[in-house]
């Protein structure tokens, strides 16, 4: 059984590789696919097969998927390009006779107002249309996303946001990676949709407390309106588009797009998800 993953060079991909190996998958049954496989030399040394492919170059994908039974498509990072890119991956997987695709999607991708959801919804539809058995891993927010918030708060003592009492059911990347490895390597996940979240949803008052403990100073959550938030971000030098994106995400969070707790992630990985305080402290220390 040959298991492959795209995006293997990224943060999540590397953790999935570690998780597959830790679960006893034979290294030569794993195909790690990336644009620059020199980033994966350490895995090649451990016997993992490396193949080069780019989501934007269909001919590279055809060669990468030869002999692959089960594929994890890790969503790309080029927002706006991804439906076309993922479509190339799905077409190539179909042509190569891949028997199963797991895809890293977004929470409630088919119904959510989340600003990032449309590309994931469209990709899910392409996978359904392909007829290839699938699993949608609708990953919630990574706890690691808040390292930068903590770094800024260390200097300012503030976390400024326009999400009100919105909550985030985050989990560590490793938790999501373990789930992806379980689904890729194990039976019984055909045509499944998992809403993957941390075991608890936390608000920004709690985040401020956790960040205070991590950075060693009092940190306060400052609530601002969407309009104020946009002004603060643009005055700080963020381009208009990016500021709008951040504010939209806060609006989505305020409206509940990231706060759903389902238990799917803990059930898949067979353990509780990593709590915010532990996951953020670890990620913050790693980034220092
Ligand atoms: N749930 C969340 O909180 C969250 C947060 C951020 C991102 N995401 C999504 O989850 C994915 C994985 O997260 P991550 O932390 O591992 O992100 P990451 O470290 O940025 O990794 C992205 C991976 O996608 C690959 N990639 C991007 N464009 C590609 C292309 N055209 N062809 C082939 N490969 C391409 C990158 O390859 P290179 O190494 O060659 O660049 C890299 O391996 C992201 O790509 C994004 O879609 C989720």
TrEMBL record:
Pfam families: NAD_binding_10 (PF13460)
Every NAD(P)-binding domain range: 7-185
Signal peptide: none
PANTHER family, per the entry: NMRA-LIKE DOMAIN-CONTAINING PROTEIN, QUINONE OXIDOREDUCTASE 2
Protein name (database record): NAD(P)H dehydrogenase (Quinone)
């Amino acid at each position: 059984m040959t298991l492959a993953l795209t995006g293997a060079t990224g943060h999540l991909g590397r953790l999935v590789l570690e998780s597959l190996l830790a679960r006893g998958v034979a290294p030569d049954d794993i195909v790690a696919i990336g644009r620059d496989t020199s980033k994966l030399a350490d895995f090649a040394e451990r016997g993992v097969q490396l193949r080069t492919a780019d989501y934007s170059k269909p001919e590279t994908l055809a060669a990468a998927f030869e002999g692959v039974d089960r594929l994890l498509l890790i969503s790309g990072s080029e927002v706006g390009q991804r439906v076309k890119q993922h479509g190339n991956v799905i077409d190539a997987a179909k042509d190569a006779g891949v028997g199963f695709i797991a895809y890293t999607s977004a929470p409630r991708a088919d119904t959510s107002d989340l600003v990032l959801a449309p590309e994931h919804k469209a990709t899910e539809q392409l996978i359904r249309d392909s007829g290839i058995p699938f699993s949608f891993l609708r990953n919630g927010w990574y706890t690691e996303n808040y390292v930068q918030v903590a770094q800024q708060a260390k200097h300012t003592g503030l976390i400024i946001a326009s999400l009100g009492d919105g909550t985030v059911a985050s989990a560590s990347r490793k938790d999501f990676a373990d789930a992806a490895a379980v689904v890729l390597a194990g039976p019984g996940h055909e045509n499944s949709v998992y809403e993957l979240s941390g075991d608890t949803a936390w608000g920004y008052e709690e985040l401020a407390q956790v960040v205070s403990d991590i950075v060693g100073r009092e940190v306060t959550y400052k609530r601002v309106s969407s309009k104020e938030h946009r002004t603060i971000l643009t005055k700080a030098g963020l381009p208009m588009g990016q500021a709008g994106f951040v504010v939209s995400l806060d609006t989505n969070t305020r409206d509940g797009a990231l706060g759903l707790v389902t238990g799917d992630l803990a059930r898949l990985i067979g353990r509780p998800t990593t709590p915010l305080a532990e996951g953020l402290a670890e990620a913050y220390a790693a980034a220092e």
